[in-house]
Amino acid sequence: MAVKEKVLQFANQVSGKKPGSRGYFGENDARYKILEPVVSDEMAEVLLCMKIRQKTTAEKVAPLCGKSVDRCSELLLELSEIGVVFVNEIDGVDTFWYETWVPGIMEMMVNNKEQAKKYPQIPKAFHDYGVENGPKSTGSFPPGVGLMRVIPIETAIDGETRRASYEEISKYLNENDKFSVSDCSCRTARESMGEGCGHLKEDMCIQLGHAAEYYIRTGRGREITREEAFEIIKRAEENGLMHQIPNLDGSGKTHAICNCCGCSCLALKGANMFANTDMVRSNYVSQVDKDKCVACGECVINCPTNALKLGQKLCSSKPIVDKIERKETPRNTNWGPDKWNEDYRTNREDVVESGTSPCKTACPAHIAVQGYIKLASQGRYKEALELIKKENPFPAICGRICPRKCESACTRGDIDSPLAIDEIKKFIAEQDLKEEHRFIPKKRHEYGKKIAVIGGGPAGLSCAYYLSIDGYKVTVFEKQKALGGMLTLGIPSFRLEKEVVNAEIDILRQMGVEFKTGVDVGKDITLDELRNEGYKAFYLAIGAQSGRKLNIEGEDAKGVIPGIEFVRDVNLGKDIKLNGKVVVIGGGNVAIDVARNATRVGADSVDMYCLENREQMPALEEEIEEALEEEITINNSWGPNKIIVEDGKVVGVEFKKCVSVFDENKRFSPKFDETDLKVVDADYVLISVGQNIEWGNLLKGSNVELNPNNTIKADGFTYQTNEPDIFAGGDSYTGPRFAIDAIAAGKEGAISIHRFVQPGQSLVNGRDRKDYHEFDKESLQLEGYDNMPRQKAAHKSDLNTKESFKDMRLTFTEEQVKKETERCLGCGATVVDEYMCVGCGQCTTKCKFDAISLVRKYDAEGVAYEDLKPAIVKTVIRRKGRIIGKKVKDVFAK
């Protein structure tokens, strides 16, 4: 295609370059490419007769370009529709001018939605411009004088005595009378390239004054009131977005307010990719009060420039990162590609190198344990619940059945005993269960698209919960008549009463989630039929609800029952009676549940046999102790050799001695002494050695693949399968694990589905990978801490434990909670990288502990575009001096 020479000349003119001059660029430059599909040479002839940021009329331009006034006016109006020039009616006359590339021409061209959709090279050129020109500006702008400027969230600087009016969003809204709103141009551009980050883009950028008039007139935006503008600002802040303004009109002046995210904003791309934070920063930086900080991580995940990370505040014999200091920045170093962070949208770090709190790290859902412990200590139970539910919608359930990995990792355990974290969580959730009006999360959006969740267990319910918060119409299809999956059918009531499960599921009903029970998807209705009904994506979380076989002689005899099916029948209220001697094969938590259920349905004696020795048993120690208290005998290091059968019914089991369970690589590879055998009598044998997944016809006709162990194949981060609209999670993806693992997977599945059903979104860009690691506990200096006894939950004493299906464990009293929360060491704290912080204040809105604030570090005001050059020249000269000085210093340091 022939080059449009006049269009190319105009593109160079906007950049201040004349034909034949140094730096005159060609047709491969993004500045030409954005114009090429929609701007003609005839239009360019008119544009070449105008000057940047200088208002003019068709009457004035016409004689300069040799065209009639009518034709000139026609071309200028067309250019205003395209987005190359502004148009305002001033004193009854249409007045035109063009702005810089960014902020200016490029955003306006992208905000012509039909145009951007028809010509994808327009949004791509917008993106490429930042990549091509970002490095050139790195280190050249003094703080606060860049083309865009961060304006702090106003509540973040409320107490700052040195704040200036030009740093207040309210000033810009109160001083204008005309407002419009449009979609975010940056997120629109990313979306068109399939690189969206999932952040809200609709109705996010506010135009003021002349810009609002232009946006309304050309259909780029819709008119709004000042009150609506303030509501948009509020909604943006609630959704984790920060504010920037075009910074070209002089101090305290602008024509727009952008609500930005760090993962798609092209101005923040310079900060994140090239470490060019001076180009956009406000006068403020974040400061953490470590005494108040509880390392909840809310500030970290919301920081648009990854300037905040989790660290520790306990003393250590090894160096720890308590402040991020950069010896090299664009201010004092030549900044080439070797220093860029091109993958900044996928390689965010949540934790400093020396690590952070073990409790948050160990939790599969990475709940802010330290945070809700502190809130509970202050009696702020509702806020504690809200913090928990950011990662786990079912704290009352998990407070009763969680494996307590956080407690196993708790630093307090190195002094006396781990903190009773789960009991505190249970108490917090119990307060909500007692409330007349329970906590219902506020919906962030109203997207309305239909999503199908197949399986009503913890993974599926978690996915439904988080999708519902985003306003999706979620339907959960459950094969059984009861909801809850293994929570309801696989865990005995004496560990998890069904009223608790139902109460937490009722929250989803109040949120608008629809449930269809007794529906076997694949048999009663197919995935294709659901697609035809308008469902846009599917989350498969059917669990692992059938028992695994031993594949030994006699296994099919009468009286040999899969343990998981036995528990399910008991939970469904079937009339189950086991008389005589019961042998349970297995050593995990499910096997313990099976054995304890057996004592409650008539067994004279219950003996457990497992391969592992006592220390290796996969069951939790607490579960083992409760089984022993109920006079269940545990026989370690025995494996079943065959089941002895007479007249088709089991009468006993032959076991062989297990000498080792794992090989030298810690892989399951049991070895036996085939000569050491023993036979035990049995009237019933309950097998609990693992669970299988039964897919039925669910996947029939799909491209979804299964692993050799029958789990579903899916991406380990996004949970997307080979069928793009099908995602998976929970036991059907990982194999049998704990409920908290499934709950964590459900939230990640919801994030992926949200991105999948929205056009142009990436499943990975800007997404938190939750890559946590704990600090080195071996190097901690814990001398001087007093021993404080761990609080213990009381048990009901009016019921016979062996006969009752009631949960005998009571909840902590409020006094116990206060005593137990005092034992928390408060291991972690947020660490600030002051150079990377742009002073947006988003962190302060998320902190519930008044632990992070903005402090004024700079005193820069914006300057008009026409006065920008001297400021840049001065900065460039100073920078060169610093670079030379640093090199000299480094030489002498060697």
Automatic annotation (TrEMBL):
GO molecular function, one term: metal ion binding
4Fe-4S ferredoxin-type domain residues: 284-313, 828-857
Keywords: Iron, Iron-sulfur, Metal-binding, Oxidoreductase
Pfam families referenced in this protein's UniProt entry, alphabetically: Fer4 (PF00037), Fer4_20 (PF14691), Pyr_redox_2 (PF07992)
Keyword rRNA-binding: no
EC number: 1.4.1.13
The keyword Secreted is annotated on this UniProt entry: no
Protein name (database record): Pyridine nucleotide-disulfide oxidoreductase family protein
Organism: Paraclostridium sordellii
Lineage of the species this protein comes from: Bacteria, Bacillati, Bacillota, Clostridia, Peptostreptococcales
